[in-house]
Amino acid sequence: MSSERLPAFQTLIDELRAAFATAPDKAVAMRETGRALERALRDDGLRDHCRAWPSTEGHRNLLLYEDPDHGFVINAVVRTEDRKRGIHDHAHAWTAYGILDGTEELARYRRVDDGARDGYAEIDLVSVTTGTRGTVDVVPPFGIHSENGGRERSVAIIVRSERLVGKCLQGRYKPDTKTTYQGEGPTQVPFAVTV
Questions:
Q1: What does the pLDDT look like over 29-50, one tens digit per residue?
Q2: Which pLDDT tens digit goes with each residue over 63-100?
Q3: CA distance 48 to 52
Q4: Domains annotated on the chain, with CATH
C-alpha cells in the first residue's frame, strides 16, 4: 500500500477539520461530524477497504487518525459475529459511532439513581436500534450506551471529540449487580487507511 489516504477517508478528515475549526462548540462540531460520517459510510470504496481490516477483539480499537490541531480521533472497531460489548460511557468526550459494514445493536441507557453512592448505579434501557450501514449514533458526554455485534462480522468507524486512552477513565456499568466502576478505554492500534 502507498502512503496516500483512501479518497473517501481523506474527505472525511477534511470535513471534520472544517467542522471543528468553524463550530462554536463541540456539540455543534459533533452534529456536523455525524453528517460527515454518514456520507463517508456510504462510500463503496471505504466499505470494500474495511473488509481487510483486522479484528479488534481483545479490547482494542484501530487508530485511523488523530488530528494535530483539533484533537479529534478517528477509530474503527471490527467485531466478530455476536460480539458483545459492555455498557459504558466515554467520560466527557462526544462520540459519533457509525456502521460501515454489517449490523450492530446500538443501545442507550439512562442513569436513574442520583450517583451519590460510590460504585453503585441504577440504569434503565432507553432504546435499542439495529444499526446497518450508514447508521450513525452521536453520543453526548457521559452518555451510557453499548454496541453489540450481529450475526456477521461488523465494522464501525468511531469519531471522538478527543483522545481519552491514557488521559482519563471511562464509566463501566453492570445493571445486573447495579454497580459501576472506572476503566481505561480500548488499546489504540495504529492503522493506515491508504490506497
A1: 999 999 999 999 999 999 999 9
A2: 999 999 999 999 999 998 877 779 999 999 999 999 99
A3: 8
A4: 7-190 (2.60.120.10)
CA distance 82 to 61: 17
- CA-CA distance, 87 to 43, in Å (whole number)? 30
Angstrom distance (rounded) from CA 157 to CA 13: 12
Which residue, 150, 147, 131, 144, is CA-closest to 175?
144
d(C-alpha 21, C-alpha 70), whole Å? 7
CA angle 75, 186, 115 (to 5 degrees): 110
* 0.85 surpassed by pTM: yes
Contacts 24+ apart (CB under 8 A), 176-183: 178/120, 178/121, 178/122, 179/119, 179/120, 179/121, 180/119, 180/120, 180/121, 181/119
How many CB atoms neighbour CB 34 within 10 A? 18
